[in-house]
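WARN no homologs supplied; continuing
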Amino acid sequence: MYVEDLLALNFMMNTSLLYLTARLTGKQPAGIRLLAGGLLAAVYSLVIFWPGAVFVYTWAGKIAVSVLIIVFTFRPRRSVELLRLCGAFFLASFFLAGTIFALYFFGSTPAVVRGGVFYIAPPRPGMLFGGVLVAFFLIAGVWHFSERQRKGRDLRFGLLLRNDGKEVNVRAFVDTGNQLRDPVSGRPLCVVSYRAVRELMPDVLQKAFDHDEDPVRALANLTEKNAGRYGVVPFRSLENAGMLVTFRPEAVIITGQCGSVERHDLVFAITAKALSLDDDAEVLLNPAIMESMGGVVI
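OK structure emitted
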């Protein structure tokens, strides 16, 4: 291989690694700095022509050169930032090397074993470039999925509903499309699956829901003690319209990643339908509730 070919190949690979490192860490260095860092790393490959350059082939030498390239390209200001960049750079290097190695052996690659040593021909530049593309799309896909999962976790909460000496734990999800409000009080309404709060319901409502009867009519049979916590609210969707029974429990404890808050003003519209196919969400929280997270912090 000629020197210019070695430089061009290493320049392409190392620039790709630096770009992947920037994407993994959220950095946005100037394009010229990425190219300059890739060129510096390519020049490092010429040490194979330097007699006696034993140190650069050791683990310590390779790590030292990698840190130098990271500092030159990204100019980190803190040691923690430098460690994070180095970790991402090595992760991208190992991921890219594994991708190219996998593509290499998916093809008809000749391999020879002689004297207990496994010999393979060096991969072609086209395969290296293909490995870069595959690694980039894989990392981008995994990163996008992990970001969606992380954002999904930020919208998930645990609720403890208490009423009349009973309590139930339910899984809640903030539904940004939920704009329901109580027409009388103007309070934002959450939507809860009947099955999740069945134990808190009085017998007349349990009977109505369990036997597919109209729960709105069953409200007329509530005792004076329970009547004040139930009401109705009109709703309209793409499929149908009608009335839903509303329920205001004595207390609701909302638990998230930042702690717990106790609320006494939350109102839930009860639906007989499941809110998710896998029952992962039993309550759809109104986003207006989260914007004004009042209550008692536990």
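Residues 125-154 form the longest helix (30 residues).
OK
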